[in-house]
UniProtKB/TrEMBL annotation:
This is CRISPR-associated exonuclease Cas4. Residues 12-198 form the DUF83 domain. Its cofactor is [4Fe-4S] cluster; Mg(2+); Mn(2+); iron-sulfur cluster. The lineage of its organism: Bacteria, Bacillati, Bacillota, Tissierellia, Tissierellales. CRISPR (clustered regularly interspaced short palindromic repeat) is an adaptive immune system that provides protection against mobile genetic elements (viruses, transposable elements and conjugative plasmids). CRISPR clusters contain sequences complementary to antecedent mobile elements and target invading nucleic acids. CRISPR clusters are transcribed and processed into CRISPR RNA (crRNA). It holds the Pfam family Cas_Cas4.
Amino acid sequence: MYNPDDYLLLSGIQHFLFCKRQWALIHIENVWKENTYTIEGQILHEKADKPFLKEKRKNKIISRAMPISSKTLGLSGILDVIEFNKSDDGIKLKGRDGLRKPTIIEYKRGKKKKYSYDECQLMAEAICIEEIFKTKLDYSYIYYGETDNRIKVEFDKDLRSLTIDTAEKMHQYYENKIVPKAELYRKCRLCSLNEECNPRLTKKPKNVKNYLYGELL
């Protein structure tokens, strides 16, 4: 169990899986820079991030920008959207009749990725909700703005293990102030910290030939 003073940002779990150096630059060295993709992501989240805005639609209650945290993971953050649907195996909400089942909706700018970066973040959010409401979530959803579709994510044993292990590694990196050396990948071109990280120069020997002709390699 982690002390609240030691909590890390939950959203960082996606950064950590995508690129540990990117995560370390942001969360350890406090380096940040906007680009087209980060700005588009902010626009997508504008409605979801209105604190404490609640809606009721028939048998569904929708809550936005809910603060969450997990003592098990040592992470805290803000949920985009969580829905509470009437269900016989749900939980009791203060001031509401009946039982309701919580389901998280995480918003992402792009499209579904090959790897489990987004799913792991959603799983971390689910673990927070499980601790807060003393329940268990079997699934939730990720909405992708680029493809305009909602994808169901099952919370299986492997995803839970990956999420817990990743959170532990994040704390190890943070406590020891580990900033990994740069590695050069295709995805580096899309990163808002490309210039600050400068993987082409830090990965390859710093000589004139690499500097002049690096863009052709």
